[in-house]
Amino acid sequence: MASIKQFQVTFDCADPERVARFWCEVLGYVVPPAPKGFATWDDFNRSLPPERQGAAFVCMDPSGVGPRMYFQRVPEGKVVKNRVHLDVRVGTGLVGEERLATLQTECERLVALGAVCVQVLHADGVNESCIAMQDIEGNEFCLD
User: Fold this and answer.
1) Nearest 5°: phi and psi at 122?
2) 52 φ, ψ to 5°?
3) Residue 141 region, left (φ>0) first, then alpha (ψ -120 to 50), else beta?
4) Residue 121 C-beta-side C-alpha neighbours within 13 Å
5) How many helices (H) and strands (E) would you count in the chain?
6) CA gap 87, 95 in Å, rounded
7) What ranges do the domains of the chain cover?
8) Which of 122, 125, 127 is nearest to 97 (CA)?
9) Nearest C-alpha neighbor of 58 from the set 33, 25, 27, 76
10) pLDDT in tens, 88-127
11) Residue 69 is inside which H or E element, if any?
12) Long-range contacts: 48-54, Cβ < 8 Å, 24+?
């Protein structure tokens, strides 16, 4: 019998702290405390060699239930569609117009944070409505 494993979600990006703080706002996540011996993350960052400063950032679910999210700087930009994406579940249990209104309200909040609304997919009798979006560096995700 397999045991349940914890996992983290890792994002390749140009500006790890900026993208991490965006996802903190989306998900209600928090930045964990700075490493032992450092008052702030800025203090820790300044202690690193110049080429490692700003190279990574983390956010986490304050309840400890959701996965940790790790953001790492990479030199190349995003070129193709993600093979895996996050579904941000804001409409769970809702149907029809109530679901669509909830999704659109969240979409507006995220657009104000820098996200892009790509496409509103309306219920079709098989699937309920969802909204395809991109985060501040173009990574696809859905409001579901």
Assistant:
1) -85, 150
2) -100, -10
3) beta
4) 14
5) 3, 7
6) 17
7) 8-73, 86-143
8) 122
9) 33
10) 999 999 999 999 999 999 999 999 999 999 999 998 888 8
11) strand 68-73
12) 54/15, 54/16, 54/17
Coil, helix or strand for 72?
Answer: strand
Q: Give, in degrees to the nearest 5, the angle at Cα 64 between 45 and 130.
A: 95
Residue type, 124: D
CB 57 within 8 A of CB 16: yes
Q: Bridge-partner residues for 10, per DSSP?
A: 70
Is the model's pLDDT at 144 over the cut of 90? Answer: yes
- Strand, coil or helix: what is 105? helix
The string of pLDDT tens digits covering residues 72-82 is 999 888 888 88
Task: Give the three-state DSSP class for 134.
Answer: strand
Inter-residue contact 59 to 20 (CB < 8 Å):
yes
